[in-house]
Amino acid sequence: MTPVPVEQVRKVAVVGAGTIGASWAACFLANGLEVIAVDPVVDEGKLRRAIDGMMPALESIGFPVLADTSRLQFSATIGGELAAAQFVQESVPERLELKRETLRELESVIDPQVIVSSSATALIPTDIQEEAKHPQRVIVGHPFNPPHLIPLVEVSGGERTAPEALAWAAEFYRAIGKAPVLMKREAYGHIANRLAAALFREAVHLVAEGIAAVGDIDEVITQGPGLRWALQGPFTTYHLAGGAEGIAHYMRHLGPTQEARWRTLGEPELTDELVDRIVRDVHESVAGLSSAQLARFRDTGLVEIHRLKEGLTADSS
Q1: Helix crossing, 44-60 with 291-310: angle to 10°?
Q2: What is the H or E stretch that residue 144 is in?
Q3: Among candidates 93, 96, 138, which has minimal Cα distance to 115?
Q4: 192-285 falls under which CATH superfamily?
Q5: What is the pLDDT of residues 196-205, one digit of tens each?
Q6: Is the whole-model pTM more than 0.85?
Q7: pLDDT per residue over 217-240, tens digit each?
Q8: DSSP state of 286
Q9: What SS3 class is residue 147?
């Protein structure tokens, strides 16, 4: 494959302009790119207002270009205007047949050298690219919500993805301020959502067994390990727990205690009764705050975490 050099990318397409797609569009616009957004359901005015609402946070984390929505073109369908796109971020709903159909439509108008990156939450690129005319350019570029504020993008390829497509995508995401992680091989749910699923499964188990309440579990994470996780991942955390000898000491001396805990972890079933209890308890826990209010609180905090991390180095005292 010979996609256009990353530094020459000027126009990108966002196909699927819901919550994730709108966030991607804001990120691209803040990087000075022209954006063609496509969605058969989302109202154009709603999309533009959503992007406008993201701009103060993007400015706060250092993006020098305020998103000029005059550089945003909108269409309800995939058409000839996408022929000018030099990169496509697909963010349609998580249904395999819909993603394949979207790819078929895209391939009728975009150049064969244009990378198509799916924001798929869990689907793997091998399945998405199965019916593609040019499967070598199909990858997954999975963001973490909200994409305009969280740097992570998990990049993975399928059985027929060209290595140069993965390398190009990683370079492109890095150029727009993201933190791409190139997976060694594809996996259902990628990395972050597999880790999140493991944690959420145990959280649900603790509720189901009456060990802890929903609000208390959220408090345990946000007032405990969540604070560390914004700075260091699980392996570095346990490396520090090993003292002067680090992870080697931890694994030798405390590894068996981990295995003992693993054997007690639950496998809850999402029965109607349990789901109803969780829904009721979550609403009680958030104390009447709307989703919009919770999102504003989250986004304000993410901006401050960005600022904090930018000022830290490994040898900070």
Answers
A1: 30
A2: none
A3: 138
A4: N-(1-d-carboxylethyl)-l-norvaline Dehydrogenase; domain 2 (1.10.1040.10)
A5: 999 999 999 9
A6: yes
A7: 999 999 999 999 999 999 999 999
A8: T
A9: coil
